[in-house]
Amino acid sequence: MTDIIKNDYDPRDYQLVVEDIFLNFGGINALSGITTGVKKGEIFAVIGPNGAGKTCLLNCINRFYDPEKGRILFEGRDITKLKTHKIAQLGIARTFQNVELFGHMTVLDNIKLGRHVHLKSGFLSGGIYYGKTRREELGLRKEIEETIIDLLEIEHIRKQVVHTLPHGLQKRVELARALAMKPKILLLDEPATGMNLEETEDMARYILDINDEWGVTIILIEHDMGLVMDISDRICVLDFGRKIAEGKPDEIRHNPQVIQAYLGEQDLTYSRLGA
């Protein structure tokens, strides 16, 4: 059975392949043999109730967690044992369910931190800020202001201290920091959580723009099923650490196993799953 599943996700056809991943915490199976694949340029959603293992899966992909078994391939390369900063250098960026920003720094400074894994200036030049370091810094700031800040419409807050901003804007800043890493794949853990309807619609638009205009592959965890069904190309459904379904939004919406496991007779279009 495992060999058949592996053949379904040929690394030549998929930018990211998760292959038979197991993860345990004190005897609790957080992930039990998860296998899936994400194609280059698609928006791939992972949904499920509380405890389904969605965030655990992202944590394995960007190496916050070490799976007990299985492997993860990125562009054909086994990245299962790489350090987290090496994953970032390869082009896998991340946002978090709970905002993880430096609250007493400005918006612009927080965003610039996202590029540190790619900076080439040495310790000496960085310490006294001259020559190559200064040129690199000015080039980075120009790029951020002309592309990322413009895309996410946060020009008006770029000099503000992050902790003074409302939650919705902080989520946008965290997304901007992830984009500063020049990602090939962007892992978004509940990007619209805590947002009102207008903010959620804006976030959906930003995600679509990042995917369409920048060509970034998106792996999305989100409890807002309206958002998921509207923007996803494919959806993977987890239940207690196991994959129970995968397919296009219409297939998932009408999948009897998904409906029975999560929502009874409710319509997936309007329901909200837990984290």
Main β sheet profile: 6 strands, mixed
* Share in β-strands: 15-25%
Helix and strand composition category: alpha/beta
Give the tally of β-strands.
10
How would you describe this protein?
The structure is a single chain. The chain is of the alpha/beta class. It contains 11 helices and 10 strands. Helix 4 runs parallel beside helix 7.
Give descriptors for this structure.
10 strands, 4-stranded antiparallel sheet, alpha/beta, disordered N terminus, 38% helix, 275 residues, 6-stranded mixed sheet, Rossmann fold, disordered C terminus, globular
In a nutshell, what does this entry contain?
This protein is α/β, with parallel strands linked by helices and 275 residues long. 38% of the residues lie in helices and 21% in strands.
What's the SSE blueprint?
Blueprint: H1 2-8, E1 16-25, E2 28-38, E3 43-47, H2 54-61, E4 69-74, E5 77-78, H3 84-90, E6 92-94, H4 107-113, H5 123-128, H6 132-151, H7 167-179, E7 185-189, H8 197-213, E8 217-221, H9 225-231, E9 234-239, E10 242-247, H10 249-253, H11 256-263
Parallel strand pairs: 3-8, 3-9, 6-7, 7-8
Antiparallel strand pairs: 1-2, 1-4, 4-5, 9-10
